[in-house]
Amino acid sequence: MQLTNGALKKSATPPPIASQLPVDELEGVDLETFDLSAFVSTGKTKDKNAVAVLAPEVMNFVKESEELFKLGEKFELEVVQRGHQSLYELLASIYGLALRIEESPQKDKILDAIRKDMKDNHEIIVKANSTPINVMVKYVIRTDKPAATRYAKVLTVARQENVSVVDLPPYITRRGGVAQAQEVESVALAKKAGDKSTKERTVLLREFFKLMGETSKSNFQFSGDVIVHTEPKEDDKDASTFCVFVAHHVSGDQYKMISANDLGKSWEDNLVKYLGKGMPNNLYLLERGIRNYKRSIANDPTQPESVRKDMERQLTVPMKYKQTEVIEMDDIDDAPL
After folding, report:
1. Which DSSP string do the residues of 214-272 spell out, in sequence order?
2. Distances in Å between the alpha carbon of 19 and those of 83, 183, 282, 318?
3. Is this prediction's pTM over 0.70?
4. Cα distance between residue 273 and residue 167, in whole Å
5. pLDDT grade, residue 44 (50/70/90)?
6. Which of 101, 113, 178, 232 can pair with 239 through a Cys bridge, CB separation 3.0 to 4.6 Å?
């Protein structure tokens, strides 16, 4: 199935501003040259003439790869998994001590004494309003601030969900480890807000694919009927944007048309999200990629003057999404339990 630009109709309504997704994808990215179009063709391209012949030297490499895979399995079991389990047990101990401090009548004095020890003996400053969890994580994990930030977030989420000390290791394991457990809270908030970030990402993907269609140099004319699978409602501003062509591969570069389809907005959204599955989730980075693409169109002398001018006009509009700063340990010290 191919999403083509042969029957573009009209653009979707821009989304409202909403909260941002995690910024991990921004690390090491040159925002000025970030090319979003590189994510479009991430699937395997069919080789029309390839014949599957494995030479002996190829088989030797395959055999070595299988042996390395077996070593990898052994390492995963004996080192990685056991290492993870040890970490989760350490976090459970920190968690348990923090909860005991929280419930103690001497809570404030205990935290004051620990903060003083950290300042006097280890030159580590902890805010006076830090929670017991943040204090204890910072006390135990002293040399790795990024790791301490992740661990404190995981334990804070566990506390909010009333996870017991005994259940903490399996709790983290069920959620795929520390990195995944850290996202539990943000995912829950996104669901409560109607999953706006996901919807806004889909709108940005639509805009990008529409731009590709409007500026594509691969044109063709189709005079057949377009099957409308879902009739749009009267005055529907969220009508479908693309036409999906289904063809049968005969051989080589030969295809035979089966049908042209207007899937309707909902099904089309699913297709757009699937085609853009490899693109960034961060809305800021996604929008930067779209703006870079618009800039390349504006500077392309082969594009019509009207299109280039329209891209220049669109680039004068301020960005909708803002870059979110990386959360540091001190930034979550004020987070309530």
Report:
1. HT-S------SPEEESSPPPTT-TT----EEEEEEEEETTEEEEEEEEE--HHHHHHHH
2. 35, 14, 10, 17
3. no
4. 36
5. low
6. 232
